[in-house]
Design goal:
60% of the residues lie in helices and 1% in strands. With 417 residues, the chain is an all-alpha fold. The protein binds zinc ion. It comes from Bemisia tabaci.
Length: 417
């Protein structure tokens, strides 16, 4: 059991709600499995050759009590209890030690007794495996596999690889390094869904169908971005491949948000200027698609390219400076209304760039390593700034839309520039 004995078995009763029926604690701290209906009474089985599976499980628990829990108390804990390799090893080791499935032919009382014994062993193996998944504890950074090691300024509180979508989604309700990241964008996503629903249900005399379509592009961009981010932060500890897939979706979501942000402001900013509107929108789409293609590269998500990622999306967002200058020129730099809209755009840009800087520089955890593991880490600040920027933009373009509708029809000559 070399493989098993190196793996921590840190089960606590509060973490084992799913398996409470099968496991209970006895006085000396060693967990005692209650057999399912039909299985032989566990007390009647001695921990020797009659029940090798139980014997192995007990050994595991004792190993854990002796070493790994002590390690956790020192704050360095962690097991990696649920990697696929561990499951495979667990099953293989259990089978090698005599655990098998129930046979089909029961020829005698002896066979039946042996079969019941085997059934109990199989149940033990399954219970051990199930409890393993349910009982993960947070890890120190150094205990993470390389593909989960992203920010070494966050020392403890990391989720181990969970290898189960169910376990990943349940982890939303536990405290670890990703809890803040998950909830900031989950709540942001819900807020945008609510805002979109409110906007689209306005009566036609209040909001025209054209405005609904234009704003929907923005809302959908924001919902996709925040939703992908939520999914990434929830699922990236599932396994290396799932983590990579969702990190690509997360980056694509950012590109979609930036594209969606440009649509309403180019639409209202160049409302009567047909060609500039079409040219700028085409440029934004082309840049957005390029950003997505770059995001899909396998290397793009590596920790060493953190600044490159921040740079790609900041440059994409900052490309809006060109139409903004054009807008100021055509509307007049001293036009109070134009100044107000450019002011909202500027505030949005500042919030996004500030967020990108926090993200790229990993502030404040860089200055307080190990102190921002759970709350106030750079990524959470970045998330909050993204949501703030997205709502500032919504407010700015809403004002532009209201102003535009009070201006009346466009004059024909203004369509060409
Ligand atoms: Zn994120």
């Amino acid at each position: 059991m070399a493989t098993l004995s190196t793996v921590s078995w840190s089960v606590s009763m509060r973490e084992m709600s799913d398996y409470e029926e099968g496991v209970e604690m006895i006085g000396d701290g060693i967990r005692h499995r209650v057999p399912p209906a039909g299985a032989p009474d566990a007390d009647s089985l001695s921990l020797n050759s009659e029940a090798p599976a139980l014997h192995e499980v007990k050994k595991l628990l004792e190993n854990d009590n002796a070493s790994d829990l002590v390690e956790e108390e020192r704050g360095t804990g962690c097991p990696l209890p649920s990697t696929p390799v561990d499951f495979v090893s667990l099953e293989r080791e259990m089978l090698q030690s005599g655990v098998g499935e129930v046979g089909d032919n029961i020829d005698s009382t002896e066979d039946r007794a042996q079969n019941e014994n085997m059934s109990y062993k199989a149940w033990s193996c399954k219970a051990a495996k199930a409890a393993w998944t349910a009982s993960w504890n947070v890890c120190h950074f150094h205990h993470l596999p390389q593909w989960l090691q992203d920010n070494d300024f966050l020392h403890s509180g990391h989720r181990p690889p969970l290898n189960s979508f169910n376990a990943c989604f349940k982890s939303i309700f536990r405290i670890h390094t990703e809890t803040g990241n998950i909830w900031t964008h989950l709540l942001g996503c819900i807020a945008f869904m609510g805002t979109m629903t409110y906007f689209l249900t306005r009566p036609p005399y209040e909001t025209k169908p054209d405005d609904k379509i234009v704003f929907s592009m923005y809302f959908i961009g924001a919902i996709i971005c925040l939703g992908c981010s939520f999914a990434f932060h929830t699922l990236h500890c599932h396994s290396e491949n799932i983590g990579k897939l969702f990190s690509k979706l997360d980056y694509c979501g950012i590109a979609i948000l930036i594209m969606g942000s440009f649509v309403p402001w180019l639409y209202y900013g160049f409302y009567c200027h047909f060609y500039p509107k079409i040219i700028y929108m085409s440029m934004v789409m082309a840049l957005g698609i390029m950003a997505m293609i770059v995001s899909l590269g396998d290397k793009f998500s590596s920790p060493s390219l953190r600044s490159v990622r921040a740079g790609v999306f900041a440059a994409f967002g900052l490309s809006g400076i060109i139409p903004a200058i054009h807008y100021g020129y055509t509307e007049g730099w001293f036009n109070k209304v134009a100044q107000a809209y450019l002011g909202w755009l500027l505030l949005m840009g500042v919030l996004y760039i500030l967020g990108a800087l926090f993200y790229a520089m990993r502030v404040p955890e860089r200055f307080f390593p190990g102190k921002c593991d759970i709350w106030f880490q750079s990524h959470q600040i970045f998330h909050v700034l993204v949501i703030a920027a997205a709502f500032v933009h919504y407010h700015g373009v809403s004002e532009m839309a209201v102003y535009r509708t009070t201006m009346g029809e466009c004059r024909a000559q203004s369509a060409i520039y």
